[in-house]
Amino acid sequence: MTFKAPDSLAEQIAHHLAERIIRGELKPGERIQEQKVTAALNVSRGSVREALLILERRHLIVILPRRGAQVSVLTPHNVTSLCALMSELYILLGLAVAKSWTEELELAPFLQIQQRLIASCERQDVKSFVEDSFNVMRAAYPFANNPYLEETVENLQPSMSRFYYLALEQRQAEMSEYLTLFGQLLEAVVARDLARIRAVLTRYAERSCQSILSALAAS
Fold it and tell me: In this protein, which residues make up the domain named HTH gntR-type (predicted)?
């Protein structure tokens, strides 16, 4: 594999390893050896070390004294803790969009993402579905105009993607349930119904958490 843009090499390596963790190719508890990654990707050991620090910050690995980097283990406590936090972040973004949009044309990106989600659901394409689920939040960033909120979501996104991927790989039929909730969310945003936005996103987070915990118990 050849990487470009040396100034972002560590981020590219981190993204590559994150994708393998999210898809389950690197298993919980599995050791990630700097030397092997360096040789496999033909990059410097310093860049790999920096990439591992990025992954640790995003909660995909833990770096232990004298034992090195290991893929973080999924636990019910981790799932419920992250889902509770993400629920509040989703609500902040949803409310920001509802309060800030002035013309319906500004909501076009969300409608485009909705169509892509529908297509991914029809193809049973879990990877694309998960990616576009987070693109919904990224489309909301300009409305929130809050760099701290954006940074927090981006740092937590890989761990949440890992959870979603696990759940949807085991129960792909649930994609249609998430689509229904997203449709309800868009309707609430257009109506500027703040109470309904909170209710829909709370229900979405609770449903996601239940699905992830069920998938975790079955894995």
Answer: 7-74
